[in-house]
Structures are given as C-alpha cells and as structure tokens.
Amino acid sequence: MRVAGILPEDAPDPRVEQAERLKLMPIPVMGLVSQPCLEDTDTVGLGYGQDARGYSEMTATVTYTVWRNPIVRSDPINLADLEEQMRRAIEDVPPWPRPAWLVEQVERMRYPQLWGAVRTTWHRDSSERYSIRSVLVDHVNYILMNQYRQELGLSGNPWDQPAPAVTDLMVNGQVSVLVNVVEVPGAEVDTDPFVSPRPVFTDELA
Predict the structure, then answer these.
(1) How confident is the model at residue 205 (pLDDT cuts 50, 70, 90)?
(2) How far apart are CA 104 and CA 101, in angstroms?
(3) Distance in angstroms (rounded) separating the CA atoms of residues 177 and 161
(4) In this prediction, what percent of the chain has a pLDDT beyond 70?
(5) SS3 label, residue 170
(6) Measured between alpha carbons, how far is 42 from 24 in angstroms, rounded to an integer?
C-alpha cells in the first residue's frame, strides 16, 4: 500500500476498498496457520490481468508482522534492524494530523515483516506458464529482487534485472502441504541459504 502527499485526518482507509476488490477473487485467499509470532497485517496486495473476456488472472499476496516476543510487544527484541535513514523517517512526526490507519502503518514499519509471505494465484486458462513450478519460481524471484538485492549483489537501481536467481531446476516437487487439515501436493525451493522453502499448492489452489 502506497500513499503520497498530505492526507486529511479523515482520509478513508484504502484497506476497505481493497477488501471489496478481494471479493472478486474466484478462489479463497490462503494464509499461514494462526500463530503467536505472526500477525496478519490486514494488508493484501492485489494484482490482476484482464482481456476481452474479463479477468484472466488474479493474485493476492499476504504480508505478516513478526513478533519475536509476542507476549510483550514492547520488548526491544521485537524491533527490526533498520537503517538510520528509515528510523528517522518513522520517528519524524509531521505537524499536521494524520489518519489513524496511516499512523498504524508507519508504526508497523518498526517491526520485521514477512513481506509477500503467502501468494494466492488464479488463472482462468491452463498453461505451462502457470504450472506449480513456474508460479513458485516467479514468487521466490519476486521476493528476492525486492527484498534481498544486497544479498544478490545488485545495485539500488530497480531497473537492474539480472538473470533469475531461482529456476525450475531448483524446485522440489515431491512434497505435500496441509491446507485446512487436508494434505495436498506441493513444491518447495530449499537450495539457497537465503531462500526459505515456500510451498505452492496445485490445482485450484495454485
């Protein structure tokens, strides 16, 4: 979620409109099992493609806040390791009132995030491009390019697009995942020290 300019104190929370748009998703939006150390930020990234026949694809991405000490959230151990510039930006309170939801979002930036932790994708038409391997590889590379540029040795230029760090050959398709207490086929990537396994579900859940 991005906002620009000076917003009035009564500016509407964009998550409300976002929640309405999510109702267009033809399949359930998946998330991680509820657990004390992870908090759903209630912010879902939504992407879609359209053609003459309507929606051809939709993607919903869920991010979580990580609490190392979920019992005492004021514990400094919960704070993210931020660069000084980012820390100053968070602590710089403007002289005008801000919407409560914006203040909440800024405060949340103090804590580590599992950015884009779970992605639910739907494609109207079947294609090899949308196979379980391709969807997983696309998701992992998107995370790496946006959150781990330094580890990949990339510059700060967002247009610097090297060859993908993860390919189909790195995918292990011999795993299963529990979804609503049901075991379903999945896939994972576990071949790199800074890539955590990310299961992807097959069929209508992919």
Answers:
(1) very low
(2) 5
(3) 32
(4) 87
(5) helix
(6) 17
Q: Which two tokens stand for residue 75?
A: 């514990």
57 contacts 69 by C-beta, under 8 angstroms: no
What is residue 45's three-state secondary structure?
strand
Closest-CA residue to 182 (of 202, 167, 165):
202
User: If we measure between CA atoms, which residue out of 204, 181, 182, 42 comes closest to residue 135?
Assistant: 204
- Give dist(CA 166, CA 136) in Å, integer: 10
Q: Containing H/E element for 171?
A: strand 171-179
Query: How many angstroms separate the CA atoms of 199 and 186, rounded?
Result: 6
User: Which positions ≥6 away from 143 have C-beta within 8 Å?
Assistant: 115, 116
pLDDT in tens, 11-58: 999 889 888 988 999 999 999 999 999 999 888 889 999 999 999 999
Residue 182 has which token pair? 């049901």
Q: Collapse the DSSP code of 144 into the 3-class scheme (helix H, G, I; strand E, B; otherwise coil) and give the result.
A: helix
CA–CA separation, 154 and 167 (whole Å): 18
Torsions phi, psi for 128 (to 5 deg): -65, -30
Cβ-based neighbours of 4, under 8 Å, separated by 6 or more: none
DSSP state of 34: P
Global pTM? 0.81
Closest by Cα among 63, 193, 185, 198 to 140:
198
Q: What share of the chain is helix, strand, coil (3-state, %, to 5)?
A: 25, 25, 45
